[in-house]
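Quick one: co-fold with iron/sulfur cluster.
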Amino acid sequence: MLDATPKKITERRALRVNPCKTCEPVGAMYAALGVHRCMPHSHGSQGCCSYHRTFLARHFKEPAIATTSSFTEGACVFGGGSNLKKAVKNVFDIYDPDVIAVHTTCLSETIGDDINTYIQQMEIPEGKIVVHANTPSYAGSHIVGFGNMMSGFIQYLAEKKAVSNGKIGIFPGFVNPGDMREMKRLAGLMHGDYIMFPDTSGVMDAPNKGHYEMYPKGGTTIEEIRALGSVEKIFALGELTTKAPAIKLKEKCDVDFAALPLPMGVEATDQYIMELSHFLHTEVPESIEEERGQLVDIMLDAHANFYQKTAAIYGDPDTVLGLTAFALELGMVPKYVLTGTKNREFTKKAEALLAKFGANDCKAVDNGDLFELHQWIKNDPVDILVGTTHGKYIAKAEDIPLVRAGFPILDRYVHSYMPIVGYRGAMRLLELIGNALMDRQDRDAADEDLELVM
Ligand code: SF4
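Sure, here it is.
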């Protein structure tokens, strides 16, 4: 007989409500946009491609170019090989990129399209390149897609030369162009001769020149990606995103790497600077010491406004770890720390970070969603939310200030130009969080005054 007794459900496992992540191809598309004269290509239906382009365009307020294999019923039944071959020919004929970076979607992954074989069967024009990465959204988030596309480029292009080119490689992680510029500025001050890959500065923050440029001047060049195979060392910043491509490069070209956190807050930025200093045998210049000193001075000045303030921090794994570390340095209590990306390493690292500062009552989860976060906040509120635009519904419902940081930010401008990494980025974060907390204090004080008057 069947047991009709309802099973006790203690935990929501499969369903995600207001997920704190997006599709794998979004990350692959963003990584490909960080390559000079590259056309990202979505192998699947038009709907996926339109959604992913729109998502990026809404965050960066810039056109996010990409083409699609435009699957219809026929491709679903017979495979997408002929669509892809025709698409690649058309894209080279019409848009003339130097490289096409193909990523898959759920549909092409489910029917089992073998992209590598299709690429081998294609007629690719002389001097042009096609690379690919597998990015099924049901297996990972945009963060995984970003890393997979980096690995795809490395697999196809990186070359080990007999003699090192003497450069360092910087993998910036899934961050804004403004952050990439700041990482490069600091590496430049340390006299580093570097290749940043990918590099969306000059692409997703390109200036308005009065005419449309399909391929702006930014982005890592193909020659630079080839040269990654002969650099002295890779600095993989945002290790939960960039460690996998760094391992891929190590396997292919035997290039050593240092996996580091995103340089956010004091300690993680110190770590980035000191790693550069040790490796390059350069002294830390006075200008960097001055920036650090200014940041510490501001932190001390404003300390009373941050001390013991509780926060919910959510978004992408490396960004959330960076924001959490800085919140702890400010004396705050990051009561809830959450990412939508499935990655147990995130939870372990977040718990270790919280334990280091004695914040043992805080909660850290990966593979979570914002519905879950909202339930926690309803049961035990926080003073401030720090994360993406999608948290605004929690902020509104619970009347909690929200500081927008990370990806995506769909309802504000300028954020992608302004760094949140490095000492200067920390100053900006401190200003945003501090102002939000103090505005709230002012409002509460005004409400109390009004009650006294009445
Ligand atoms: S089918 Fe997959 S890749 Fe396409 S929009 Fe849906 S989840 Fe994203």
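If it helps, DSSP finds 17 helices and 13 strands in the chain.
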